[in-house]
Design brief:
- By secondary structure, the protein is an alpha+beta fold.
- The protein is about 20% helix and about 35% strand.
- The chain is built from 2 helices and 7 strands.
- It has helices spanning about 45-55, 115-130, and strands spanning about 1-10, 15-20, 30-35, 35-40, 65-75, 80-85, 100-105.
- The longest helix is centred in the last third of the chain and has 15 residues, at about 115-130.
- It is globular.
- The mean pLDDT is about 95.
Length: about 130
Protein backbone atom coordinates (compact mmCIF):
# COMPACT_ATOMS: atom_id res chain seq x y z
CA UNK A 1 0.00 0.00 0.00
CA UNK A 2 1.30 3.46 -0.90
CA UNK A 3 0.83 6.00 1.91
CA UNK A 4 0.46 9.73 1.30
CA UNK A 5 0.00 12.96 3.23
CA UNK A 6 -2.01 15.98 2.14
CA UNK A 7 -1.98 19.24 4.07
CA UNK A 8 -3.67 22.61 4.16
CA UNK A 9 -2.01 25.69 5.62
CA UNK A 10 -4.52 28.38 6.52
CA UNK A 11 -3.93 32.06 7.22
CA UNK A 12 -4.34 33.13 10.84
CA UNK A 13 -7.82 34.54 10.06
CA UNK A 14 -8.76 31.28 8.26
CA UNK A 15 -9.81 33.20 5.15
CA UNK A 16 -7.04 31.86 2.88
CA UNK A 17 -5.58 28.43 2.21
CA UNK A 18 -2.49 27.17 0.35
CA UNK A 19 -3.30 24.84 -2.55
CA UNK A 20 -1.24 23.31 -5.34
CA UNK A 21 -2.27 23.01 -8.99
CA UNK A 22 -1.60 19.40 -9.90
CA UNK A 23 0.22 18.17 -13.01
CA UNK A 24 0.23 14.52 -11.99
CA UNK A 25 -1.16 11.95 -11.64
CA UNK A 26 -3.20 12.33 -14.81
CA UNK A 27 -6.58 12.18 -13.04
CA UNK A 28 -5.58 15.25 -10.97
CA UNK A 29 -4.04 17.28 -13.84
CA UNK A 30 -5.30 20.88 -13.74
CA UNK A 31 -7.08 20.47 -10.41
CA UNK A 32 -6.19 22.11 -7.11
CA UNK A 33 -5.30 19.91 -4.16
CA UNK A 34 -3.61 20.24 -0.80
CA UNK A 35 0.17 20.09 -0.56
CA UNK A 36 1.63 16.65 0.02
CA UNK A 37 3.16 13.49 -1.31
CA UNK A 38 4.39 10.03 -0.40
CA UNK A 39 5.43 9.01 3.09
CA UNK A 40 8.96 7.59 2.93
CA UNK A 41 10.03 4.39 4.68
CA UNK A 42 10.58 4.82 8.43
CA UNK A 43 9.06 8.32 8.29
CA UNK A 44 6.08 9.35 10.39
CA UNK A 45 3.15 10.95 8.62
CA UNK A 46 3.79 14.16 10.60
CA UNK A 47 7.44 14.23 9.46
CA UNK A 48 6.34 13.55 5.88
CA UNK A 49 3.84 16.41 6.03
CA UNK A 50 6.46 18.91 7.21
CA UNK A 51 9.01 17.65 4.65
CA UNK A 52 6.59 17.68 1.70
CA UNK A 53 5.28 21.13 2.61
CA UNK A 54 8.79 22.58 2.68
CA UNK A 55 9.78 20.88 -0.59
CA UNK A 56 6.70 22.19 -2.40
CA UNK A 57 6.33 25.67 -0.85
CA UNK A 58 9.74 26.60 0.57
CA UNK A 59 8.18 27.15 4.01
CA UNK A 60 9.70 25.20 6.88
CA UNK A 61 7.24 23.90 9.46
CA UNK A 62 7.69 21.65 12.44
CA UNK A 63 5.90 18.30 12.40
CA UNK A 64 4.11 19.34 15.62
CA UNK A 65 2.59 22.33 13.76
CA UNK A 66 0.40 19.93 11.77
CA UNK A 67 -2.89 18.54 13.05
CA UNK A 68 -4.07 15.21 11.67
CA UNK A 69 -7.83 15.19 11.03
CA UNK A 70 -8.87 12.75 8.32
CA UNK A 71 -7.89 9.64 6.38
CA UNK A 72 -9.12 8.17 3.12
CA UNK A 73 -8.14 4.77 1.72
CA UNK A 74 -9.18 2.14 -0.78
CA UNK A 75 -7.87 -0.40 1.80
CA UNK A 76 -5.61 -2.10 -0.78
CA UNK A 77 -3.51 0.27 -2.87
CA UNK A 78 -3.43 3.72 -1.25
CA UNK A 79 -4.06 5.69 1.93
CA UNK A 80 -4.02 9.47 2.41
CA UNK A 81 -3.71 11.18 5.80
CA UNK A 82 -4.96 14.78 5.86
CA UNK A 83 -3.47 17.55 8.00
CA UNK A 84 -3.98 21.25 8.64
CA UNK A 85 -2.12 24.11 10.31
CA UNK A 86 -2.07 27.89 10.49
CA UNK A 87 0.89 29.81 9.14
CA UNK A 88 2.31 32.53 6.93
CA UNK A 89 0.55 31.61 3.69
CA UNK A 90 2.10 34.62 1.93
CA UNK A 91 5.57 33.09 2.38
CA UNK A 92 4.60 30.03 0.30
CA UNK A 93 6.10 29.89 -3.19
CA UNK A 94 6.24 27.44 -6.05
CA UNK A 95 9.40 25.39 -5.54
CA UNK A 96 8.88 22.49 -7.94
CA UNK A 97 6.89 21.75 -11.10
CA UNK A 98 3.43 22.23 -9.63
CA UNK A 99 2.21 25.78 -8.96
CA UNK A 100 1.55 26.78 -5.33
CA UNK A 101 -1.34 29.25 -4.98
CA UNK A 102 -3.10 30.91 -2.04
CA UNK A 103 -6.89 31.03 -2.46
CA UNK A 104 -9.75 32.43 -0.41
CA UNK A 105 -11.39 29.56 1.44
CA UNK A 106 -14.76 30.61 0.03
CA UNK A 107 -13.45 30.51 -3.57
CA UNK A 108 -12.80 26.75 -3.46
CA UNK A 109 -16.41 26.23 -4.57
CA UNK A 110 -15.69 27.95 -7.89
CA UNK A 111 -12.28 26.36 -8.49
CA UNK A 112 -11.44 23.13 -10.27
CA UNK A 113 -10.55 21.13 -7.16
CA UNK A 114 -10.20 17.50 -6.20
CA UNK A 115 -13.85 16.75 -5.32
CA UNK A 116 -13.24 15.72 -1.70
CA UNK A 117 -11.72 19.16 -0.94
CA UNK A 118 -15.21 20.66 -0.94
CA UNK A 119 -15.83 18.70 2.27
CA UNK A 120 -12.31 18.49 3.69
CA UNK A 121 -11.39 22.20 3.69
CA UNK A 122 -14.58 23.36 5.48
CA UNK A 123 -14.11 20.54 8.03
CA UNK A 124 -10.55 21.71 8.71
CA UNK A 125 -11.74 25.32 9.15
CA UNK A 126 -14.41 24.21 11.64
CA UNK A 127 -11.84 22.22 13.60
CA UNK A 128 -9.49 25.22 13.68
CA UNK A 129 -12.32 27.44 14.94
CA UNK A 130 -13.17 24.88 17.62
CA UNK A 131 -9.53 24.84 18.76
CA UNK A 132 -9.45 28.64 19.15
Amino acid sequence: MIKYVCGFMFSEDLKRVVLIKKNKPDWQRGLFNGVGGKIEKAESSFDAMAREFEEETGVKTDPVDWWYFNMETDEKEWMVRFFFCKGDVDACKTMEEEEVVVHDTVSIYSLPVIPNLLEIIPRAVLLLIARS
